[in-house]
Amino acid sequence: MRTTDKLYYLDQYLYRAEARIATLHAEAIELDRTVAFPEGGGQEADIGTIETPVGAFRFIWTKRLYGTPLSIEGFTGVKSGGVILHLVHPDDIDRLGALEVDMPVTITIDVERRARLTLSHTASHFLYAAALAHQPDLKRLTIGCHIKEEAARFDFLVETPFHADDVGAIQSEANRLMADNLPIITDHLTEHYDARFWQYGDIYIPCGGTHLETPEAVGPLQVRRKNIGKSKERLLCSFDQAHINTDDYHVGTTRHLEVVS
Ligand SMILES: [Zn+2]
Predict the structure, then answer these.
(1) CATH number given to 5-111+247-251
(2) Is residue 256's pLDDT more than 60?
(3) Keywords, A to Z (predicted)?
């Protein structure tokens, strides 16, 4: 079965790498390996550029398809393998015909966007952990999450809307947790590379996203609520004083990096 090597799991700070075209789709390019993080776990996808022998192609989204479900407790819904598609900008689609399978390419992601998504994703874990600390049954009432560059949110199915006091308590708890500034561990179970988790002190969440190594750069978290329909409440966090840092990002120079698929 065809799989795409996930270089972002090998090293989440890779922003450029050499690859080859694996398959061409009507509106997307599939490579044998990629540094682009596909949409998943609420985190928006990377965007960027694929330079080829016949010119550059912009990609406006990255998505993962197929894969085999893992049968590991706590990781239901997580899949291993799969292929990753880079959705080509509408203005570049008509040039896809000039590409051929096995052509060498260089893929580069928008590193500023990745850094922002990584910070937002990290912040979202503190919002969620604080919400659950305040009201443990929110865990089973969670119906979705969305992690964007400038904010992150969770949606819940609740009988009573959140009160201003709830929001205040959740915001305080999130900021208290982050003030400890403990190391954030992003790793995978020994059983499988795709069984990934986020850990902060004794808070453990299965998660395949990209995260900061400490919460410091997030700065103070602002939490607010919004009603999004009958019995549906949204908690949002933003981080106006965040410090976006791309210094740790670097180029993958070799093709013989360990294969992660
Ligand atoms: Zn995460």
Answers:
(1) 2.40.30.130
(2) no
(3) Metal-binding, Zinc
